[in-house]
């Protein structure tokens, strides 16, 4: 994936990032890729306020991956002690399966080490997403055994289509510690 360029998002990027994340996870457009949550959650996955908060927060970054100046992927990094939280990870549904996600994750890992000296990446994934969890495990993440409740009633995270959603926590050492 040498044709990808990376940069930190700015406030001007917020609308495009919201569109990318929504297209990767919700609605019919998300079904073009394999990361869809459309059968688990309806409604929005994120909004401009949430993305703008990530962009503006100290100790965090929203990393963008672009190809020929077009946004094709993004991820959030947030310093939490010696661990970097990895989230808001999205790749355009029409570009999924081509290595962008793996390349972006590798870049995020390197950025967490360079920016904060992070010794691990941590993330949460909806427990019912076994295919996605398996993909992360192939990339060195391990399920920690910790589970976190899904924020039922907070429509900023979507409208659940089932009553058993929860998050599993995954973690992997950064490349600097492997």
Automatic annotation (TrEMBL):
GO terms for molecular function: acyltransferase activity. It holds the Pfam family Acetyltransf_1. InterPro entries: Acyl_CoA_acyltransferase, Bact_Acetyltransf, GNAT_dom. Residues 4-166 form the N-acetyltransferase domain. SUPFAM superfamilies: Acyl-CoA N-acyltransferases (Nat). CDD domains: NAT_SF. Keywords: Acyltransferase, Transferase. It comes from the Bacteria. This is GNAT family N-acetyltransferase. It comes from Kineococcus endophyticus. The lineage of its organism: Bacteria, Bacillati, Actinomycetota, Actinomycetes, Kineosporiales.
